[in-house]
User: What shape does this take?
Amino acid sequence: MTTEHQRIIDLVLRLVSARTMELVLMTKCVPKDDRDTREENLRGSLLGFHLSRIARYAENEIEVSAENAQESISIVLKLIFRNPFQESSQPSSGFHRSDLGQLMNEAYTRMVSVVDLISPTDAYRRLHVSRQSIYDMIEDGRLTPIYVGGKTLLKIQQVEQLKVQRNERRRK
Assistant: This one.
């Protein structure tokens, strides 16, 4: 085997091993006693903590701040969707229709006011890009979609940040 191929194999093994350890550490918990069920153990894990925090925020519990809920959403998305070969942790298309996607969306809708949201059509008009470019930006994580009443909406603040970034690149 060539040195280059061995380097690639070793890199893949290290990345997959690190990802496996990350998953183990996030679901690891210490049973209180022998009567604990597996589900109860998992609820006590770090992943269980973050999922619970998202749910509590979505249910309007005052002990959970929007910042804490956002942090938990980021951690859970990274854990579930992180690609060990890239920095990406974008959910797959259609994730928003899953039970977890809907729970996260409930939390997101509490974090922003509807007046702070715009349609993808408004976003591509503001950015002067194609409609497909907006969906590409959603896909690669530059825009976070929020689904209200079955409609896809985007945070005005994120769109405006992208607009500033695009203008800065054009000036260079």
The first helix runs from residue 3 to 27. The mean pLDDT is 84.
